[in-house]
Task: inverse folding
C-alpha cells in the first residue's frame, strides 16, 4: 500500500465502484503518526499497516449541528493534518443548505477544506424525509466532502441506504463491536454488515475497540479500519497494533502455507550503496516498502524500511548528513526467514521486535541468498483466513 495520503471524492453515480484507497498519511510512522495525537481527536488506524490515516473528532455526539460546529471550532488552530471525521445528524442534512451553513463557515474559518473532512451521518429519519436526506448528501459530496454512514448494526439506519447514499465509509455500531467478542449472534451480524458494506464499495470502520478480543473479532470480519482505547498512541506517540493471536495447536496441526507463496520481488542494492541511491530507489516507485542491502553473493546484510529511512533523510540536515554516505549506517538487520517457513512461524518472527512488527521479512534460499520479501499484512490476512 502506498504511504501517501490520497483521499479523493467518489462519484455518487457508481455505488458499486470500490472506494478509493484510504492510506497512510506521509512517509512516516507505519505504526502510528509522528508525535502525540492532538487533544480532542482519536486516531483511526489501518490495521494492516498500523498507520494512522484519519482522526475522529471526539465531540459532536449530542445529535445537533451546534455540537459539531463547536467541535470544529475547538480544533481550529491545532495541528490536525490528517482527514477529520465529524459526526453530522441526519436532521441537519435534511434541513438543507441553511442548516449546514454554520458548519461550512466553521470549517472555512479553521482553514480545513471539504476534501479533508469525512462527515459521518447519524440519527433517525422518517421515510418521507429520505429523498431530502439523499439530496443533501449529494450536495455535500458535490462540494467535496466525503460521506460516511454511522451506527450500522445498532442505530435505525436502513441498510438499503448504503446502496442509495453510496458512502465512502461505513461505521459499525459501538455497541455491536463491544459485544461481538462475547456474543456469537452479534458477531454474525457484524460479519454480515461488514461484507454488505464492502459489497457496496465502502470502507468499513470499527469504532471503540477496547481489547484484543474485540480487535480479533473485527479483523475476522475483514474490517481494516478501527479506533478506540486499544489503538491510542503510547508515550512515544506511536500506535501499536497487536498482531493476531495465534492459538496453540496440537502437534502436527496445519501451520499454514509456506512464505514463498507470498513472495514479492525485493529491491536490492549493494551493501556499500549510498543513502542517495536508496532515495532514488524509493522515489522511482511509490509501492516499494523496503530496500534490502546485499553482499556480493546476494545475501541480505541490512534492511531499510521506507518510512523510517525517508524520515531520517527528510529531517533537518538529513540529506547533508547521510546523502553521500553508506546507506548501511541507517539500515536495520535484515529479518530473514527461509523460503520453506510456514506462515505461523513467520508471524512469530515478525512479532519478536515490537518496534519493527510491520517491516518486510526477507525470504532466503538454502544458501542464504535473498529471493524476495513478504509483507506482514499478507501474512495477517492468511492467518485470519485460516481461523475460518
Result:
Amino acid at each position: 500500500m502506498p504511504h501517501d495520503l490520497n483521499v479523493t471524492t467518489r462519484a455518487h453515480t457508481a455505488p458499486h465502484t470500490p472506494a478509493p484507497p484510504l492510506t497512510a498519511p506521509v512517509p512516516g510512522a507505519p505504526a502510528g503518526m509522528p508525535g502525540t495525537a492532538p487533544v480532542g481527536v482519536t486516531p483511526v488506524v489501518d490495521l494492516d499497516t498500523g498507520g494512522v490515516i484519519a482522526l475522529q473528532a471526539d465531540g459532536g455526539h449530542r445529535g445537533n449541528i451546534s455540537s459539531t460546529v463547536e467541535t470544529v471550532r475547538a480544533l481550529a488552530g491545532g495541528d490536525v493534518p490528517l482527514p477529520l471525521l465529524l459526526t453530522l445528524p441526519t436532521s441537519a442534512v435534511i434541513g438543507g443548505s441553511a442548516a449546514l451553513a454554520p458548519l461550512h463557515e466553521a470549517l472555512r474559518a479553521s482553514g480545513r477544506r471539504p476534501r479533508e473532512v469525512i462527515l459521518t451521518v447519524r440519527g433517525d429519519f422518517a421515510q418521507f424525509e429520505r429523498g431530502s436526506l439523499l439530496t443533501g448528501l449529494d450536495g455535500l459530496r458535490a462540494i467535496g466532502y466525503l460521506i460516511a454512514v454511522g451506527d450500522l448494526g445498532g442505530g435505525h439506519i436502513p441498510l438499503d441506504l448504503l446502496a442509495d447514499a453510496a458512502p465512502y465509509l461505513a461505521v459499525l455500531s459501538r455497541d455491536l463491536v463491544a459485544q461481538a467478542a462475547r456474543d456469537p449472534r452479534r458477531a454474525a451480524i457484524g460479519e454480515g454488515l461488514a461484507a454488505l458494506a464492502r459489497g457496496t464499495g465502502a470502507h468499513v470502520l470499527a469504532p471503540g475497540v477496547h481489547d484484543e478480543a474485540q480487535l480479533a473479532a473485527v479483523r475476522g470480519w475483514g474490517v481494516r479500519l478501527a479506533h478506540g482505547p486499544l489503538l491510542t498512541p503510547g508515550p512515544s506517540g506511536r500506535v501499536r497494533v497487536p498482531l493476531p493471536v495465534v492459538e496453540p495447536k496440537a502437534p502436527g496441526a496445519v501451520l499454514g502455507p509456506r512464505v514463498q507463496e507470498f513472495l514479492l520481488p525485493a529491491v536490492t542494492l549493494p551493501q556499500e550503496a549510498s543513502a542517495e541511491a536508496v532515495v532514488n530507489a524509493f522515489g522511482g516507485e511509490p509501492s516499494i516498502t523496503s530496500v534490502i542491502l546485499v553482499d556480493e553473493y546476494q545475501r541480505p546484510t541490512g534492511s531499510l524500511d521506507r518510512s523510517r529511512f525517508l524520515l531520517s533523510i527528510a529531517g533537518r540536515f538529513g540529506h547533508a548528513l547521510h546523502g553521500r554516505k553508506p546507506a548501511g549506517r541507517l539500515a536495520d538487520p535484515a529479518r530473514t526467514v527461509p523460503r520453506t517457513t510456514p506462515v505461523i512461524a513467520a508471524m512469530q518472527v515478525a512479532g519478536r521486535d515490537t518496534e519493527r512488527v510491520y517491516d518486510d521479512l526477507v525470504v532466503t534460499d538454502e544458501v542464504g541468498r535473498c529471493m524476495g520479501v513478504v509483507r506482514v499484512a499478507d501474512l495477517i490476512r492468511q492467518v485470519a483466513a485460516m481461523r475460518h
